[in-house]
Amino acid sequence: MTDAFDIVPLLAAPAPWRAVAASVVCAALVVLSAIDVRRRIVAPGFVGALCALWAVLGIACAMRSGAVFAWHWACAGLAGAVAGAGCALACSFACKSSSADEPLGMGDVKLLFALGLYGGPAFVLACLGAACLLALVYAAARAAFDATRRRVTPCRAFDSFDGTFAFVPFLSVAFCALMLFAMR
Question: Do residues 132 and 23 lie in contact, with contact meaning Cβ atoms separated by under 8 Å?
């Protein structure tokens, strides 16, 4: 019997449902990324829809694979949701206590909860780590670019990088890349 925490729920779903769910999750992540870049908000309706789709996927698993597997599948998803949201929330609170800025908004935490449902605990933590590395590379490149621009153009005619940026695009790229890698 497979341990419940070794299951990646999206990959363990029945084949036709897996393809549909992966497509819908990726499409929702693209839309959420665009909204986050423009408005700096994670639309709660999309996150709720992702959670509802996970429940439908669970019913399909139960009908196809039986109650025992569906129980393991649901435990893996819920453990992933708690691990992803819990880790993001703990990091956010720890950083918030040492500075005035909040590194992750609560929309990011809710999105990590939904992504954890699909990925399980190890997958969502790997996704969060990869997203943080991508964001770190972006912030370093953006700061270097602004420093170079400031030396070339000493006037303040351009928007300087203030250190804040939308995090959902990094989560989206990390989740989709890891999911594609896991599907190989």
Answer: no
